[in-house]
Fold this protein.
Amino acid sequence: MHSLVNYAILINMEEKLLNIREAAEILGVSIDTLRRWDKSGKLVAVRKDGGVHRYYTEKDLEVFASDLIKLAYEWTSDSFELPARFYCANSAVFQTKIIKLQNALMQSPQFSNIVSLIVAVAGEIGNNSFDHNLGKWPDVSGIFFAYDLNKRLVVLADRGLGVLGTLSRIRPELKNHMDALRMAFTEVVSGRDPEKRGNGLKFVRQVVIENPMSLFFRSGDAELRLQEGNSELSITRAQINTRGCLAIIKF
Amino acid sequence: MKVELKKFGTTLISRQAGKEAFAAFQPTLKELTAGENIEVDFDGVITFSPSWGDEFLTPLRDQLGEHFVLLPTDNPSVKATVELLEKISGKKFKT
């Protein structure tokens, strides 16, 4: 206990402690969610002088919110309240946030040649989630959308039907997630098909293999990897089956 | 007649927005004189994607045929989108 007290004092001297209400506001989640995360160990609070009140350092919050891939992966595995800054409840919110990404990319001359392609790829993946799941979300509607320009990555995820769930409506013969991903990224759905919305991922594939980008895309228990200069699709089976889709774009 | 796409927005990426743009543009078509071309100007558009393009460019090309023309652009997202839309439909856009 003594060392914990010292730790709390040390933190207090070096860094301001935020109470649970302030931390909830910063992350954009409810106080109850923070209490649950503290109990489960997902985001552990600091107790001052062995007291009962929960406190957080700004650095703890920053570290927690910076692991975008982990957050998105955990959300597709087990739904929880997402920090508001990463959650798009509908396509209008997504449009607003992706324009912010576009503006941020345009500030950096290093990205000037591929701004429109990064945004178009992220836009196709994010809008696919909304278009294919409208009125059919199994539990939580909306998508996870976050980016870190220092790490050069964009992360998107949804808890929707997944690629197999969507494509099996027009291709009932599809039996597993790997075949569904292969079809989604390779087979052009013609205008005569009843489903018009199936071609976005072909665009994504073409753009990624022709530009300095890479893509990890997961749906169900299938994982696809694409990178510049390699038109071969690498699709493997994961150990566990997760909800919806998860996409990581690196550039 | 020239259509400046930037008037529909500079980030043209969703199917819904493409549909709305197509519907909003329909009354303008009535102003076309016989034999007049529609020229699509991408100047000022930052990002363009197949979802938007498939709801706007594809049906207008089907409606206007050879009188529907795409003006040249250096925007890589426009080029990649047009390439895919042509592949899907099996028809080239007039440039």
In short: The interface with chain A takes residues 11, 13-17, 46-51, 54, 58, 75-78, 80-81, 83-84, 87-90 of chain B (CB under 8 Å).
